[in-house]
Amino acid sequence: MYHTPVMLNECIEGLKIKPDGVYVDVTFGGGGHSKAILEKLNSKGKLIAFDQDDDAIPNLPIDKKLLFIDQNFEFVKNHLQYQGYDKVDGLLADLGVSSHQFDEGGRGFSFRFDDAKLDMRMNQSASKSASEILNNYSEKELADVLFQYGELKNSRRLASAIKMYCKSKKIETVIDLKNAIIDQTPKIKDWKFLAQVFQALRIEVNGEINALKNLLSQCPEIIKPGGRLVVMSYHSLEDRLVKNFMNSGNFDGKLNKDFYGNINRPFDALNKKTIVANEKELDKNTRARSAKLRIAERNDVS
User: Fold this and answer.
1) Residue 135 backbone class (left: φ over 0; alpha: ψ -120 to 50; beta: rest)
2) How far apart are CA 71 and CA 86, in angstroms?
3) Which CATH number fits domain 106-206: 1.10.357.140, 2.30.42.10, 1.10.150.170, 3.40.50.300?
4) What's the whole-model pTM score?
């Protein structure tokens, strides 16, 4: 299977789908969430789905209610307006990497495949790969990436080890990177450490944080009052941005109040605590363990 949709029912319920509404799935992937949305729509409803990975295209269902855009969701507003849609009734974003991308060794997303090229590009026509970052970034630039996006406390030592290794051999494969940082890799829970390293590189390769910020910033303009914003994230960096934006309308989490002390924000968060997968789902899909779901409704205040 390309990808098992995480918290499918919770996401669909969160969207509060109107049969004749217009909805956006900015992360089509295996199409699990999109297909469930389509089932809720009548002939007047519409789903606009985005995905920048060409591997997702074979998963597209034949459905007149579906419009597929093979682009990154970063400029969602422009794409929607080009297609004639100024406002939509809901938007779903299932962030992170699909099971297919992790399991396809040649894509370089997983540290399980030692001989895989360190690619990590979600858009396979993009120019910058993980290998190029490792070999061409300065030690400081690399340390910043590992610290900011991997939250690795030993980021400076890691960057130093990587650049030292590069002096004698280019880092091109997964095993090259493992060998470069072997002295900095803990003996216990090495998988968790490597996951953080790979996460940091993947985020930098694909510009994921900036893309998410741009997406969220456009949502107040494109989602109708009463419409829903449903976002599922898989690490604390993303979840913090989503939480702050839903609660305050900005990424710092600072509340803006008017003259009378009323909080001015475009969305009302519908769940104070993150929604997580239940034990039954976790038994079937362990990758749902890190998923955090947040849902907000567009208000008509701002």
Assistant:
1) alpha
2) 18
3) 1.10.150.170
4) 0.92
- Percentage of the chain beyond pLDDT 90 is 80
- Looking at residue 60, the DSSP 8-state letter turns out to be -
- pLDDT of 2 higher than 70: no
CATH architecture, domain 8-99+208-298 = 3-Layer(aba) Sandwich (3.40)
Domains of the chain by residue range: 8-99+208-298, 106-206
Separation between Cα atoms, residue 122 and residue 182, nearest integer Å: 27
Q: Are 198 and 118 contacting, i.e. CB atoms less than 8 angstroms apart?
A: no
Pair 170, 176: CB distance under 8 Å: yes
Provide the pLDDT for residue 48: 98
Q: Three-class SS of residue 110? A: coil
Of 98, 78, 92, 118, nearest to 26 by C-alpha is 92
Please tell me the predicted confidence (pLDDT) of residue 105: 76
State the sign of the Cα–Cα–Cα–Cα dihedral 158, 146, 127, 176: positive
3-class DSSP assignment, residue 154: coil
